[in-house]
Amino acid sequence: MLTNPTLDQMQTLGLAGMAAAWRELAERNNANELSRDEWLGLMLDREVAIRADKRVRNRLASARLRFPEACIEDIDFAAPRGLDRRSTMALAQGEWLKAHENLIVTGQTGTGKSWLACAFGRQAARLDHSVLYVRVPRLFEDLALARLDGRFPRLIDKLTRAQLLILDDFGTHSLTDQQRFHLFEIVEERYRRKSTLITAQVPVARWHDLIADPTVADAILDRIVHNAHRIVLQGDSMRKQKAAPLLTGTENGEINHP
């Protein structure tokens, strides 16, 4: 007689996991063999699992990853691009996030930098860290507009609040005075408080020239590079490797002259 009112109370309190576990346990043939402690333990386990899963889904939705399905388990270590399995899996444990350290991924276009960054972003969400993904060229555009319409403080706060900020495609062009200022504001607010993951085609050794102002470059790189782990991807574009082979002359002739 108490089953339905109890379930209703669980739903009212937002205990959907416990309610689902209650129903499943009640339908078991051996339900009466379980003690009250066992019932309660199983119900709490389900509630914790459901809440954790929901929290990860919410974090991933807020992260807005470019490749939302990318994950550590799907990393292709067989591709000849110099990606070390042991060091990558060590980074996946997330100790660098707890220590508020950074991660820099560099390599030629098509070597999988953005996908790998998103895989680390998804892993960070699994480890209960808030994540935000942005492309650097678009970010500078948004920051410039935000200064004009009054959103600048809120946007900077959003960028500095994320426990892992992914800055994708850094270094596509030399920075302007305003872009240097914006980048410094972000890295200064995050330094030793949060972690930043940066991807770039340009090697770290050339970042100083890209920033273009020696004093500001020193200040920015000091806050990014010196406490950063690095992954340098090598080899040709993986897009080319996965592309379909070109048709032969004979096959082209067959298409043009069926």
Automatic annotation (TrEMBL):
Segments forming domain AAA+ ATPase = 99-232
The Gene Ontology terms for molecular function here are:
ATP binding
The record, for InterPro entries, names: AAA+_ATPase, DNAC/IstB-like, IstB, IstB_ATP-bd, P-loop_NTPase, Sigma_54_int_dom_ATP-bd_1
* SUPFAM superfamilies according to UniProt: P-loop containing nucleoside triphosphate hydrolases
Q: Which UniProt keywords apply?
A: ATP-binding, Nucleotide-binding
Q: Which domain of life is it from?
A: Bacteria
Tell me the Gene Ontology biological-process terms attached to this UniProt entry.
Answer: DNA replication
Q: Which SMART domains match?
A: AAA (SM00382)
Q: Can you tell me which family this protein belongs to?
A: Belongs to the IS21/IS1162 putative ATP-binding protein family.
Cross-referenced NCBIfam families, in alphabetical order?
Answer: IS21_help_AAA
Q: What is this protein called?
A: DNA replication protein DnaC
- Organism, as annotated: Rhizobium loti (Mesorhizobium loti)
